[in-house]
Amino acid sequence: MLIRFKKRFEKIAMGLLSFMPDEKEVKKLQDTINEYESNDKWQLFLWKHEEDVLGAIGVYLDEGSQTAVVQHITVNPSHRNMGIGKDMVNALKNHYGTSYEVIPNDLTDKFLQKCLKNSNE
Predict the structure, then answer these.
(1) Is 95 buried (19+), middle (13-18) or exposed (0-12) by CB count in 10 A?
(2) Residues near 93 by Cβ (< 8 Å), separated by ≥ 6?
(3) pTM of the predicted model as reported, rounded to 2 decimal places
(4) Alpha-carbon distance 45 to 36, whole Å?
(5) Average pLDDT, consecutive stretches of 10 residues, N- to C-terminus, the chain (121 residues)
(6) Which of 30, 61, 115, 119 has the most CB atoms at less than 10 Å from its CB?
(7) Other residues' Cβ atoms within 10 Å of the Cβ of residue 113
(8) Greatest CA span in the chain, whole angstroms?
């Protein structure tokens, strides 16, 4: 289930985001989390299964082009290759419906294209 990021999940979200190549440093992680907390155009969602948070997906909402640009997507390494990433992308597409088209940025392009291709089959 896709849930909106809340402050009480900050450490979990930082841990998940630290698996992203550009988010290794603590200062960078803190800045990223701060941006998600303070900027309405940045939205972070967590993937919760039962009581465990297994993944995170973050977007930048570009209202001019009506796109939700996926800038972060990560899954706990012990739960990878189980379809969680694809499930997060599909849930995000359902969340935004026709209001925003979900697209990747350069960092998430390869993974997101794979998810979108697989969800259309």
Answers:
(1) middle
(2) 102
(3) 0.92
(4) 10
(5) 95 95 91 96 96 96 96 95 93 94 92 71 51
(6) 115
(7) 12
(8) 40
